[in-house]
Amino acid sequence: MSWTLAQIAQHVNGQVVGDPEYRIRAVGTLTQAGPEQLSFLANNKYRKFLATTRAGAVIVTAGAETDANTNLIVVEDAYVAYARAATLMYPLPKAEAGIHPSAWLHPDARVADNVSIAAQVTVEQGAVIAEGVSIGPGSVVEANVSVGRDSVIKANVTLCREVQIGERVVIHPGVVIGADGFGIANDQGRWIKVPQIGRVVIGDDVEIGANTTIDRGAIDDTVIGQGVKLDNQIQIGHNVTIGEHTVIAGCVGIAGSAHIGSYCAIGGGTGIAGHIEIVDGVQLTGMSMVTKSITEAGVYSSGIPIEPARQWHKNVIRYRQMDKLFERVTLLEKRLKD
Amino acid sequence: MSWTLAQIAQHVNGQVVGDPEYRIRAVGTLTQAGPEQLSFLANNKYRKFLATTRAGAVIVTAGAETDANTNLIVVEDAYVAYARAATLMYPLPKAEAGIHPSAWLHPDARVADNVSIAAQVTVEQGAVIAEGVSIGPGSVVEANVSVGRDSVIKANVTLCREVQIGERVVIHPGVVIGADGFGIANDQGRWIKVPQIGRVVIGDDVEIGANTTIDRGAIDDTVIGQGVKLDNQIQIGHNVTIGEHTVIAGCVGIAGSAHIGSYCAIGGGTGIAGHIEIVDGVQLTGMSMVTKSITEAGVYSSGIPIEPARQWHKNVIRYRQMDKLFERVTLLEKRLKD
Amino acid sequence: MSWTLAQIAQHVNGQVVGDPEYRIRAVGTLTQAGPEQLSFLANNKYRKFLATTRAGAVIVTAGAETDANTNLIVVEDAYVAYARAATLMYPLPKAEAGIHPSAWLHPDARVADNVSIAAQVTVEQGAVIAEGVSIGPGSVVEANVSVGRDSVIKANVTLCREVQIGERVVIHPGVVIGADGFGIANDQGRWIKVPQIGRVVIGDDVEIGANTTIDRGAIDDTVIGQGVKLDNQIQIGHNVTIGEHTVIAGCVGIAGSAHIGSYCAIGGGTGIAGHIEIVDGVQLTGMSMVTKSITEAGVYSSGIPIEPARQWHKNVIRYRQMDKLFERVTLLEKRLKD
């Protein structure tokens, strides 16, 4: 397969600077691409490579044309345009429709015609699988789960009973949706289980990264809004709600009943306490520690980055002496006043 | 199914205030429940909803009766009583006994009669599955594993060779128990593997959350005491021991050979160093960093919560200048003395 | 099976002090081992047990002979020697060659003769499985994956399309290699997917712990160098590269396009930002927060360990007042100068 720059420019709503009939066959990074490859410049850090790239063409944001020595496609947002061009050139591998003979489907599951169910899959009673869905090898769809049109469930995923998955959702391998939330009550020193009877409801166009876990609600549902993008190894507790188009990077933990707004961006490794509220439009940098509600949009951070170990050790000691330092300064101020 | 308040009150050892013959069919939260639903008040934050709830009845702790306008069940501990009532009304879905034809059991596995083994399961040689156990779809029970009476292994769980699971244990999807610990020795710059020949021994009534991992011991066993409750995505290194009735929230990492006492409560995202000891009755708040043994019961914390990013940036700089500030204050004190 | 101390000493390149014909049958820790067991002393913390151990023999590093009252094998590095002795005595359980009837292999997969493929496995089109490989129950090998000689893939592992695994690699249960990286572009508030078309390339002699995830590259590959050892629940973003013989402890998160050098040691729970570079020979202590490139080898740390909660609370307040304290001290200095 190959595409002319004119074809790609039209697809991404851009202007060709150079030869519109130039043909490319693949994408590549600025430093690795060759003459048959299309590259892009979205991060100014890499602008220096524009002069020396061997790429056959480069997608750039308007304003970057001057530095280049190759064909360009000039657009409003180079990264969005690259995403679209790459999606044109590399459509997601679509599993063939059909049910693998080694899969097991309960006779009372309702599976649409145009569905792909891979080897070693289990689909339990009452599950509803809509048209265009594919379910990867080894995945388990428990009783009364519903999966919306054109959603892609990859390998070794577990969707627990009654979980509701929207349309065009992508769920990567190892994800567990709808396991019991951590509901326990202390009965005179021993912990007894609180039944977890809510569901998980996942909106349309959500993507969920590998080995992420989303617990079912205790009574009401856990709800992930449409367009939310979750990276790998995220843990979402029971009754959490996440607003539309929020993105969350890897290794984030969100405790039960936290409510996250829409259009938020949460950095990797962040921890969010339970029973708090975060308004729309909040950004948290990586490894943030959130213990209280956030009531205003904006960027928030926490954590002290690394230092050489010796210096770190000294600073930790100083930190613990701070309170005394305040007293010393107060005393100095008093003395000086006297 | 429906229950009278008298029935429920008897089950939870409470007193009905209102109509003991009132019938309820389900549970619900104070704000969402309707006339056929039973709710509860366990967190004072939600007490304000007691006056306006449409719930048919509410379980409350003695003392909260005055605010309510609906039927009550008054108990000593509302959350424990709710847990019991909900368990009565929503018994854990019990898989039907029987072995699914797509499961594979080694002929030398010893499987009791009254067991449920789901689709796509593997049970290897020498495994022993006691009465009343259920094993979910896609799970793997390796050689010589033993699973005690009435334990519930959910979908896509891996129990590695020789792991010992107690009675009434619940293991959620994606859990891996008994993978090799991180035992490596540095042989002149290259790392060689140290065989991991211990087991994992899980006590009775333990619950283990989705995608949690518990490594086998290097020589002796890794041991999880009875009644321990583990949330999702916890990592427990080789030869860790955890005392009875300790609870651990999600995303906690415990390095090898750490020993955790009984009746501890460990907040989410906490990291615990290897080869240390934590006594009984320790509480750690979320995201704690534990580098040394804890020798006294009590509550411990670490971490500095988020601030607006600009302020955070300034404070990190100040933190790094602290040592100099101490010098400046010492100098001031000296000068003032002179 | 049993071994004489002479046999073991020869295998580990050590000297017997005591009876070279003494026979041992197993290994054990200094405190637990009996007369038929071999123990070792690698951590000085445990040296006190040397006088009282009931072990039939102990491997020690030269210099520790004096304290012992049992047979010794004296070596240069007791832990390396123990690793070798234990590997001799406990060879990794080797799965029998053969393809389980419940496994499903695509007819176009290329599987060498001397391979073990367990129950419920899926091997897709174009996959290449070299001699001596074993693949555990429930694992999924997607299209065009290649697994090198003598590698061991445990249970419920997912190797996504085109992933390349070297020789003698060990991959523990629940690992996901080659899921899509977190590539999204913000198209006027909505996030669109950026196709992830790179692969993951894993070098020889790598070991990967349970439930770890390694994402495929966005365009170029994600690369794990030979001899790298990864613990459990590590998350590695797209286009990360890790140099040879680096070790990483559990629960570490590495964001996209970070480049980690060779011979590094990264403590558990560490977070590493994307698009940064860490040179060879860097050590990071547990829970480190790395936001910038590290350009010099050495030991780095961050994080403030726990304190009693009351003290922690006070110190957090003090931390937030630091900036004002600096102003107060500056004012004091000025006044004193005046």
Structure notes:
- The structure is a homotrimer of 338-residue chains.
- In chain A, helix 1 packs across helix 2.
- The N and C termini of chain A lie far apart (86 Å).
- Chain A contains three helices and 40 strands.
- In chain A, the strands form six sheets. An eleven-stranded parallel β-sheet of chain A has the order 8-11-14-17-20-25-28-31-34-37-39, with no helix packed on it. Chain A has a ten-stranded parallel β-sheet with strand order 9-12-15-18-21-26-29-32-35-38, with no helix packed on it.
- The mean pLDDT of chain A is 96.
- The longest helix of chain A has 29 residues, at 309-337.
- Chain A is α/β, with parallel strands linked by helices.
- Chain A folds into three domains: 3-89, 3-Layer(aba) Sandwich (Udp-n-acetylmuramoylalanyl-d-glutamate--2,6- Diaminopimelate Ligase, Chain: A, domain 1), CATH 3.40.1390.10; 98-300, UDP N-Acetylglucosamine Acyltransferase, domain 1, CATH 2.160.10; 309-338, no CATH class.
- Chains in contact: A-B, A-C, B-C.
